[in-house]
């Protein structure tokens, strides 16, 4: 995947501002803007335009934050692949050409799902773009930032869980000790609480949903099932359910925002749904199961979309249907 340089991000800002400054009467599916060096292609521009606030996006992308906060790093080097708008409301995420073409092909499945279901857990995508210069092409998407609902309320993020339903390498060193320390600090109303980050094996060690009512658990499980069924139909794998908790001053019950005791809010969303189970992923699966790790499909992350869906659902059933 090509990494975008800072100069390219700056050009993206300029081209996106031009793109969304054009009048609302645009009817074309695909829009192309050209400068002396760069060409920006915006796919499905009119459809995305039906559920975005153009003025808000223009204001938000006036400046990008190139220094990825440690908060968002779940163990991978994300700095060169992400840029946050300065107000933290949107993310520009670099994707590969393969992911770009795949999402282009499944766009209508995604789009009509978003339109039909206001409670959709999928983190919203607001644009798909290709940036061309004299030497190469770069691809990126404009997404909502799931953290933003906490950010606007001046809250403190307490924990982040990135959950795929897999077992292999899905564990954090000394997680439970850190969790217990954090719980003690919260009980003592400490002003500063260290951020806790966990994955699938870590999440099993805590009773995260114990304060959820039976109805709330069932609603969330049904929503997870619906979303993962749609993603499986589109041959998608490697997505995650991200759970974010934080102290908040006010919390409105909503599609992804839940309120627990002591002003702790929870945001839940499905992210990273741009990966098709293609020939490359099939080879990766064979390598990991036969020639390398010798671990069955229920343990490794790279599996076919139907296996991924079933495993994803079974993983959350153990917490939400007890």
| Overall average pLDDT | 80
Number of helices: 10
Largest sheet: 7 strands, antiparallel
How many strand elements?
A: 12
**Overall 3D form:** globular
What does this structure look like?
- This is PIPK domain-containing protein.
- It comes from Paramecium sonneborni.
- GO terms for molecular function: 1-phosphatidylinositol-4-phosphate 5-kinase activity; ATP binding.
- Keywords: ATP-binding, Kinase, Nucleotide-binding, Transferase.
- InterPro entries: PInositol-4-P-4/5-kinase_core, PInositol-4/5-P-5/4-kinase.
- The protein is of the alpha+beta class and 322 residues long.
- The chain has 2 domains: 139 residues, Phosphatidylinositol Phosphate Kinase II Beta; 173 residues, Phosphatidylinositol Phosphate Kinase Iibeta, Chain: A, domain 2 (2-Layer Sandwich).
- 36% of the residues lie in helices and 21% in strands.
- The protein contains 10 helices and 12 strands.
- The strands form 2 sheets. Strands 1-2-6-7-5-4-3 form a 7-stranded antiparallel β-sheet. Strands 9-8-10-12-11 form a 5-stranded mixed β-sheet.
- Strand 1 and strand 2 form a beta hairpin.
- Helix 1 packs antiparallel against helix 3 and helix 8 packs antiparallel against helix 10.
- The radius of gyration is 20 Å and the shape is globular.
- About 4% of the residues have low confidence.
